[in-house]
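Project outcomes to date are best conveyed with an example. Our students and postdoctoral researchers have been running inverse folding experiments weekly, and each run begins with a structure described purely in tokens. The record below, which covers 97 residues, was selected by the lab manager from last quarter's runs and is presented without edits.
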């Protein structure tokens, strides 16, 4: 049995919304080897923090995976600049320690 490439997935918490019609989106798939790839997908369900996508994985066919909502953008919107740095302080000031 061959092993399939792994991606970062999340577990949805809270109420799940399943729309009458799914939405085309772009999802950043974060591979276990550290690579990130933006792929076309269909959002089929979501919570406040996670989105279930239907997407075509290379060499694996059609998949359904839950990914972080921050890694989704709707089709037709500009791709934001990727910022993998840690979030800044809420107060906007540097910590003194």
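After processing, the design step wrote out the following sequence:
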């Amino acid at each position: 049995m061959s092993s399939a490439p792994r991606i970062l997935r999340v577990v949805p918490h809270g109420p799940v919304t399943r729309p009458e019609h799914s939405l085309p989106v772009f999802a950043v798939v974060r591979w276990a080897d550290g690579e990130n790839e933006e792929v076309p997908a269909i959002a089929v369900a979501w919570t406040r923090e996670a989105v279930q996508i239907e997407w075509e994985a290379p060499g694996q066919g059609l998949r359904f995976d839950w990914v972080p909502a921050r890694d989704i953008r709707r089709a037709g919107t500009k791709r934001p600049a990727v910022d993998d740095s840690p979030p800044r302080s809420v107060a906007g000031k540097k910590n003194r320690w």
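The beta strands are 23-30, 36-46, 50-57, 61-68, 72-74. The mean pLDDT is 83. The training component of this project remains on track.
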